[in-house]
Specification:
The structure holds 2 protein chains of 2 kinds. Chain A is built from 4 helices and 9 strands, in the order ααβββααββββββ. Helices cover 22% and strands 19% of the residues of chain A. In chain B, 65% of the residues lie in helices and 1% in strands. Classes of the chains: A alpha+beta, B mainly alpha.
Chain lengths: 200, 466
């Protein structure tokens, strides 16, 4: 232990100043390292839109296309399915898709069925809880997780439930509805996923 | 010259000269004596005291087998799964090395859990061993990280979706969460970039930290001395002539021999798993992980490996109802309890304000956030154990009925949550997990009170042994 009176004050100030400068340099050096862990240019460029042909999709059937490494579901809903959606309004947490509007539901899908055309549901099949892909439980009837199931999707990871419009059930781990990606109809049977109609 | 002042090494036969030469240039004999032949450990260690040295032994197995696995493994999303199969089928003895590594991971957790349970039984974390315990919990955290990063490497379905779920936990953090998750993955989804960096963490970053912490853990242990099943300090009663604890025996040869016996028994169990049941019925190696990763399809039944399931159950149990009817009233009740037992007005104020902030958060943020918070708390709470336990005695042998009941309940709940975490979700199971979660936290949060009022027996002066 050095005696207080023997401390060379100007030398101590220099030590503190150089330690601060060294510390600042160390922090600055960590920035490139941290930045190197961000998505690379190539990863960012891979987000191009994809096209899907729904001509062969019969009522009640679902197809999956890959967009940005994620599954995008296209479900051809029957009349009965659309009626079920109206009946689940009371069970779902956000029936009118009002949460995180721009991010989860584009304006053109902010309706009862969360789609441009009521028959075709287009959603990213990734649970808003922790990113699992829910399973199809399209048929109504009693299920282990819900005795009065009206059809929809069940997430095997943490038990979240979604109705046939991708709306999340109340009191489940998932907070939000399934995300509707930006999409547009190129023709009656072709959908472009990943890009909106140009705002004219 | 310093070298000439040191005594020559004796008792090593033909190696005396060599060891003397080394000892005059390196603190060889001093270290040997300090940590082995003259490190006095209590003479009454029992079965539970095997698991520290066994954990160290498994660490060695993991490092050695890991080095050989990296010689054939390819950290590339397009090749990883196939390279693991290549190791399993075509590399000579590759299957053996890989099964040792995968079995070692599970047995590492078994050893560490039993080692931690030993500390909880005998109060090994109590003063002056708080820092020793903290290093231990840090080792446990590193081990969890190591296991998690390693589990992505085979690039099977469970690897992929497990990583997807855990990285998405960070996504739940308000404001910075989504960007943080992207930074961790290095991509917008779990991808090749993620696999590559997890490989780097798994083979170099975390093992380095783990080794450093193990050294710190052992140094701290040898500074304060080992505790024992009676929870009394052997340093209190020393031989007046030699200054050695009367109830202590040199670690070497007494405990090195005991621990070697433990290693032999361990190797028997280890070999039985490696040779006869390497997947342990889906618990050590999950069946779904024999399917290559498919980013478009989550397996029908997804669960983490068994050692993470208790915390995973807590995560799943946190629903809106649980937050509203259990968590929020729990925070209020606990704040009132704290305010009632604290004397200082400033502390009372702090508790009150914290509780109000928490309550506002509970009612406004998603249940998802709180699930993540509870899961993190369920692990981090172990850090605080030395200060939560206010019992006048350390060992369960002298603790009262309340503490014994509480610890028993905790162990039962830990197993129940662990089991539920491996199963799919039903309403009944969710309810069970919610009750389990409540009990899990009550064990810790009420400890300052029940450990204090419990009727304990007097501690003996010296250790007891048959």
């Amino acid at each position: 232990m050095s005696d207080q009176s023997q401390v060379n004050r100007s030398r101590r100030s220099l030590v503190i100043a150089s330690a601060c400068a060294g510390g600042a340099a160390a922090v600055a050096t960590s920035v490139p390292f941290a930045a190197s862990m961000l998505p690379s240019e190539r990863a960012e460029a891979l987000g191009a839109p994809v096209e899907a042909d729904i001509g062969q999709l019969n009522p009640g059937e679902k197809m999956t296309v890959e967009w940005r490494g994620q599954p995008v579901w296209i479900l051809h809903r029957t009349k009965e399915m659309l009626e079920e959606i109206e009946r689940t309004d009371g069970k779902v947490a956000d029936p009118k898709s009002e949460r995180k509007k721009g991010e989860l539901t584009p304006e053109y899908a902010r309706n009862e069925y969360r789609s441009i055309k009521p028959e075709y549901l287009v959603v990213v099949g990734i649970c808003s809880h922790l990113g699992c892909s829910p399973q199809d439980r399209l048929k109504p009837g009693p299920e282990a997780f819900e005795s009065q199931w009206t059809g929809g999707f069940y997430c095997p990871c943490h038990g979240s439930l979604f109705d046939l419009a991708g709306r999340v059930y109340k009191n489940k781990p998932a907070p939000d509805n399934l995300k509707v990606p930006p999409y547009t109809y190129l023709s009656d049977t072709r959908i472009l996923i990943g890009e909106d109609k140009k705002k004219a | 010259m310093a070298a000439a002042e040191k005594q020559a090494v004796t008792g090593a036969g033909p190696f005396n000269d060599l060891l003397t030469w080394i000892d005059q240039r390196f603190p060889l004999m001093e270290t040997w004596r300090k940590h082995l032949t003259e490190y006095y450990a209590p003479k009454n260690f029992n079965f539970w005291y095997y698991f520290g040295s066994l954990a160290l032994f498994v660490l060695v197995i993991q490092i050695v087998t890991g080095i050989f696995l990296t010689m054939n493994y390819k950290p590339d999303a397009a090749q990883a799964f196939a390279s693991v199969e290549y190791i399993m089928r075509e590399v000579p003895w590759g299957w053996w090395i890989r099964y040792m590594h995968s079995t070692g991971a599970s047995l590492f957790f078994i050893c560490v859990y039993l080692h931690m349970f030993r500390a909880m039984l005998y109060g090994s974390y109590r003063r002056p061993r708080e820092l020793l315990w903290i290093f231990g919990v840090l080792i446990f955290l590193c081990l969890m990280a190591e296991a998690f990063f390693g589990y992505l490497l085979p690039w099977g379905q469970m690897s992929y979706w497990g990583a997807q779920v855990i990285v998405n936990l960070f996504d739940a953090i308000p404001v910075i969460g989504p960007d943080l998750a992207i930074w961790i993955r290095g991509d917008f989804v779990v991808s090749d970039a993620t696999l590559n960096r997890f490989f780097a963490y798994h083979v170099i970053a975390v093992p380095l930290a783990l080794l450093a912490l193990v050294v710190a853990h052992l140094l701290a242990l040898h500074e304060v001395g080992s505790s024992n099943p009676d929870g009394v300090e052997i340093k209190n009663v020393k031989d007046p002539k030699t200054g050695r604890p009367l109830d202590g025996i040199p670690f070497h040869p007494y405990y090195t021999v005991k621990d070697t016996f433990g290693v032999v028994v361990f190797l028997i169990v280890f070999s039985m798993v490696v040779f006869f049941a390497p997947d342990a019925g889906g618990y050590f190696l999950e069946h779904n992980n024999f399917i290559p990763a498919d980013p478009l399809k989550t397996p029908a039944h997804i669960a983490p490996v068994w050692y993470f399931t208790p915390y995973y159950s807590i995560l799943r149990a946190t629903t809106d109802d649980f937050v509203l009817w259990v968590l929020a009233p729990g925070v209020v009740a606990f704040a009132l309890l704290l305010i009632w037992s604290m004397k200082k007005n400033s502390t009372r104020m702090t508790v009150g304000v914290t509780a109000i902030v928490l309550l506002a958060g509970l009612l406004n943020l998603d249940a998802k956030v709180w699930g993540v918070v509870l899961m993190a708390t369920s692990v981090m709470i172990f850090f605080f154990l030395p200060w939560l336990d206010r019992s006048p005695v350390k060992s369960i042998r002298y603790k009262g009925p309340i503490t014994k009941t509480a610890l028993t309940l905790f162990v039962i709940v830990f197993f129940v949550l662990g089991y539920l975490g491996t199963e799919s979700v039903t309403e009944g199971r969710t309810l069970a997990a919610q009750i389990g979660t409540a009990v899990y936290f009550l064990f810790f949060f009420l400890m300052p009170w029940y450990s204090k009022i419990d009727k304990c027996l007097p501690e003996p002066e010296r250790v007891t042994s048959k």
